[in-house]
Amino acid sequence: MIARLLEGVPRRGLVALAALLLVLLVFPAFASGYLLAVGFLILYFAFVGQAWNIMMGFAGQLSLGHSLYVGLGAYAAAALYVHFGVSPWIGLGASIATAVLAGAVIGFLAFRFGVAGVYFAILTIAFSEFARIGFDHFTWVQGSSGFFLPVTNYAANDLWNLRGSPTMFYYLMLGMTAGAFVLCHALLRSRMGYYWLAIRESQEAAQALGVNVFRYKMYAVMISAAMTSLAGIVFAFYYNNLFPEQIFHISRSIELILGPIIGGIGTLVGPLVGALLLTGLAEGMREAMLQLGIDVPGVKQVFYGVCLLLVVMFLPNGVWPPLAKAFGFERRSTDRGER
Predict the structure, then answer these.
(1) Which DSSP category does 329 fall into?
(2) What pairs with residue 163 in β-bridges?
(3) C-alpha dihedral (300, 304, 309, 311), degrees to nearest 10
(4) Staple 294 to which of 121, 236, 289, 315, CB 3.0 to 4.6 Å?
């Protein structure tokens, strides 16, 4: 199975991935607390970008309300932990089930009744807004006042309850990001992955060839929702507070999808490259400005907008495809999206 997954992957690509993994593994040993927090954010956005990439990059379904699944996963696990003392690893089942159910409802309404393109994107925004308004008035999780998780100790690492140091969360996020990369690589090499690519390129042609378009688009939505809800759990237990206005807002969804758009939609490495460029450069620029005594509100959002504009104008396929071609990292295959 491993040999099949690695088939066609250039040796230099494997070496580069191994080197990157090694750097990420030793990074906490040399990083300050601030750099460790930035590293965590990069991995977080790489993970959720990979999850969103399944829907848009692989199956061609544009979601602009992906913060819905982050919020549902976060609130489900956090509420079970605070009210009943349930470990987030046990609450993980409820978080995934809640997000998958929401994704299935959205997918069923859209795909069964022919809602596609920009209208599907609007539908995803609408559900995210419904959740934001609903949780604003959901007193069991304190509504708009914010839901806070108890923090007892940062020194001792309790992985079972996700209570511990930033280093523990960094390695947890690193493991999740690596796992998402391997999972997405395996999905692309599977029959379902080829069906997704066929649907993305031409839904009518795929249907004419016998592909059950409704079923495989539903699979894409539900898998993406499940993965995104995992990120929501880590988000909740890392920051220890949840506000509906913050976690369900459309600006949060836009943040989640910028990584794969900048890096390269439909590619495996694109979400990681995009997250590294956007988060790393934005945080570096903000820190440099603060060192100079300059504090401009919204400067990060302006930076995101400039990056997106430049990519749309000069690199419409994202940053990663030309880099992969220049350094010989492309797969020895004609399959689109497998890079």
Answers:
(1) -
(2) 158
(3) 140
(4) 289
Could you give the 3-state DSSP secondary structure of residue 146?
Answer: coil
**Structure-block tokens of residue 304:** 């995101």
Token pair belonging to 163:
């209570």
In angstroms, the CA 263 to CA 18 distance is 20
DSSP 333: S
- Whether pTM > 0.85 for this model: the answer is yes
Residue of 339, 299, 300 lying closest to 318 (CA atoms): 339
CA atoms within 13 Å, Cβ hemisphere of 76: 27
| pLDDT band, residue 1 (cuts 50/70/90) | low
Structural domain spans, the chain: 40-249
CA neighbor of 71 nearest in space, from 241, 220, 222: 241
Angle, CA 136 vertex, CA 257 and CA 252 arms, to 5°:
10
Q: Assign 143 a pLDDT band (cuts: 50, 70, 90).
A: very high
Give the pLDDT band of residue 298 (cuts 50, 70, 90).
confident
Give dist(CA 63, CA 158) in Å, integer. Answer: 35
The dihedrals phi and psi of 51, each to the nearest 5 degrees, come to -65, -45
Q: How far apart are the first and last CA of the chain?
A: 19
Is the Cβ–Cβ distance between 58 and 189 less than 8 Å? Answer: no
Confirm if 99 and 72 have CB atoms less than 8 A apart. yes
Let me know: does 181 contact 187? Beta carbons within 8 Å.
no
pLDDT at 333: 46
| Cα 225 to Cα 212: distance, rounded to the nearest angstrom | 20
DSSP string, 233-295: HHHHHHH-EE-HHHHSSHHHHHHHHHHHHHH-TT-SSHHHHHHHHHHHHHHHHHHHHHHTT--
Cα dihedral 172/177/179/183 (nearest 10):
150
Per-residue CA distances from 318 to 308, 322, 323 (Å): 10, 8, 10
Choose among 120, 148, 134, 16: nearest CA to 59. 120
* 104: its two tokens: 């299935």
Q: How far apart are CA 287 and CA 73, in angstroms?
A: 31
Backbone angles phi, psi at 338, to 5 degrees: -95, 85
